[in-house]
Specification:
The complex is a heterodimer. Chain A is of the alpha+beta class. Chain A has helices at about 5-10, 35-40, 60-70, 115-125, 150-155, 200-210, 220-230, 260-270, and strands at about 15-20, 25-30, 45-50, 55-60, 80-90, 95-105, 105-110, 135, 145-150, 170-175, 180-185, 190-195, 215, 275-280, 300-305, 310-320, 330-335, 335-345. Chain A has three domains: about 5-50 and about 140-225, 2-Layer Sandwich (Gyrase A, domain 2); about 50-130 and about 245-275, Alpha-Beta Plaits, CATH 3.30.70.1400; about 275-350, Beta Barrel (Elongation Factor Tu (Ef-tu), domain 3). Chain A is built from eight helices and 18 strands. A six-stranded mixed sheet of chain A has the order 10-11-12-9-3-13. A five-stranded antiparallel sheet of chain A has the order 5-6-7-4-8, with helices on one face. In chain A, helix 2 (about 35-40) packs across helix 7. Chain B has a single domain (about 10-115), classed as Beta Barrel (OB fold (Dihydrolipoamide Acetyltransferase, E2P)). Chain B has helices at about 35-40, 90, 95-100, 125-130, and strands at about 10-15, 15-20, 30-35, 45, 55, 60-65, 70-75, 80-85, 105-110. The chains are: A alpha+beta, B alpha+beta.
Amino acid sequence: MRRTPLYDRHVAAGAKIVDFAGWEMPVQYPDGVRAEHMAVRERCGIFDVSHMGEIETVGPQAEALLQRLLSNDVSKIAIGGAQYSVLCDEKGGVIDDLFTYRLERERYLTVTNASNHERDLAWFRAHAGDFDVELHDRIDDYAMLAVQGPLAREIVQAISDAPLPARMTAATRRLGGADVLVCGTGYTGEDGVELLLAPADAPGLWDELCHCGASPAGLAARDTLRLEACFHLYGNDLSLDRNPIEAGLGWCCCEDTGFIGSEAIREARSVGAPEKLIAFEIDGPGIARQGNPIVGGGVVTSGTLSPCLDVGIGMAYVPAGRIAVGTPLQIDVRGRLREAKVHTRPFVEKKA
Amino acid sequence: MAEVSYPDDLLYHPEHDWARIDPSEPDLAVLGITWFAQDALGEVVFFEPPTPGTRLVKDQPYAEVESVKAVSDVVAPLSGEIVEVNDALADGPHAINEDPYGEGWLVKVRMSDPAECEALLDADAYGASLG
């Protein structure tokens, strides 16, 4: 089991620690998931996401390799830009969903999901042979903190030596006493930044940001927040047996770049997917969970109680004819049928 | 959240459930989950009480408590018929975390075999079983 540089902080704060993808991570702190969730929606939360992986691609053909591997058009990433994409196999199945930052003209950093890092790295390496690039596994070189909420930028800006990079861009800043790659990205649906820095600097920055008003939040709140925002979670909404078209991620696929899987995805896009991912809200009590079947076809991939809406929400694959907002669904929740309706996305809008 | 406690006046089942028997009503038992169980679950977000009249079988699950990420069975420490349920929990189950032995009670049963109490643990034995 691995621990992040902030493990002792989490234990000292009374967090409940769980095994997540081989890492001992805080799932919640003593005040509870709802309080952490609302802190992010209303003020500012801070997450230790140091378990996530990083792969650096460097060299004259860095863009060319990434163009081959990533679904999106990598040539569109300016220096200092950020881009979301999926990593697919030849059949168009999703291996992972990723953010890639262009740090320099020929240097890119791709952030991977903790559960997929080793597989992603092996995939990158297996396909890099023909390209003039160097690949570096940087998982041990970076800790990562996510600071999210309407006050997040204000809090981080106050300790920064220069204006923070805008949404979907990344730049190095000095925060407190540390050099930090500040990324205008996040997984909560609120504004905020994700901070990549040397592991040794992480505890000091965590302390400073908490002191400035960021509330520690754990993995459970991370899940309720992302689900209200309808962001995908690999292993739930994304998997090797679903292609991006089914998952609603056709927008980040540019088949013309010829990435691995593009032909299968081009086909899926033109033929249409038999099932598509939708968001749903339960009518009344009950919480649907991953694996709950939908009556008439389909399956729930993610489900929870929404802290903001106080109702069961989730995402599910349903037959293509049933994706219209308002379509009634019946979900078999452990033998009990719960009524639900297809819902617009996201469930909760970002605070202005 | 509540402080760790295992009250002396309760009987305990190894699957982290408690039973309270009031000497003035010796064939009735109030049931709930222990501090250990609610702590392991984290914040409870959903509990739907079973209906009165439902029969419980000792050692079998009779209900579920849900946290944001998971669903856990609640095991019956004793057999019997449910005569009353804690309806207040349907509006908000936080009492299960905050007061697991008081406001967080789940059901009241009329025991079908009070001798089953002898198989339950006292507070010391249950506490010791937690390691």
